Amino acid sequence: MDFSQALVDAVRAAVGVPAAAYALAAVGLNLQFGYTGLLNFGQVGFLLVGAYGTAITADHGLPLPLAFLVGVAAAVALGLILGLPTLRLRAEYLAIVTISAAEILRLVAQSRPLEGFSGGAFGIRGFADAFYNWNPIPSGQYGVGSVTFSDRTLWVMLVGWSLVALTSWLIFLLVRSPWGRVLRGIRDDEDATRSLGKNVFAFKLQSLVLGGSIGALAGILLAVDAQFTNADFWQSIFTFFAFTVIIIGGVGRVVGPIVGSMLFWFILQATDSLLTQALSDSFFGSKLGPTEAGPIRFALVGLVLMLLMIFRPQGLFGRRAETLVEER
What we know:
Layout: H1 3-15, H2 17-35, H3 43-59, H4 64-86, H5 91-109, H6 115-118, E1 124-125, H7 129-133, E2 141-144, E3 147-150, H8 151-175, H9 178-188, H10 190-195, H11 200-226, E4 228-229, H12 237-249, H13 256-280, H14 293-311, H15 320-327
Antiparallel strand pairs: 1-4, 2-3
């Protein structure tokens, strides 16, 4: 097997556009779950409305910067719609509502009656040409050694990781402010925080909306990179991958989503590359073919996650003391 090629593929994936998008989605989810204790199982719904809000607006001929704002505004509206009726109730209600809403939105987006608006099952394509017209990077290939990217991909990566850095810096400032200390108080003991006169409902709603808006940026990034969006992009499994990312990096840590996303994609792509080579060479015999690489790689990644939870449940950068508080 060509281990050097597997390493190159893994490094490319660890710094690529999907890794940046997962990091963005996990930054928003980490604010909601890691700092506030909100069980949002429908983060992918915020990505969906961000992507569709942008795509539909741009497809109707409006400027792309306005389309980006519409995508984020759609996520704000979704956060308010989901949060206002549920955040006064127990945490399980938010989990049920968010995962249900994400799936409902996906089905609505691909429905035939809305085909003229959302593109239906065919989706919307070719709406982000203006974004690539802004590309300041000269045409060519860029990178180090065998790890290279086209000017187009590098431009999207630059924007994506810049958004990750800016949102992470914003979260860093917020969680160390009085506002952030209230969020951590809600996570650790909601009743005690309420007894101090804090409006717990308002803080929860703010956290849900802000985290969802950051998630919408991830959806916009993926849609712009593909120049395409349809309902099949936004499966519920995306949310659980985002949870995996923050668990790997460390729940309630600013750098957790960034490192977690890079490591997640590194392991996923390295495993996929090695398995594909091994199966193509009949390393496991004739009963397994190259098409089995996908399911097997997720099983192996799941095994790595299980070992992490056994030996380091707080993640790479998490604090054991905070984990114990959450378990209590």
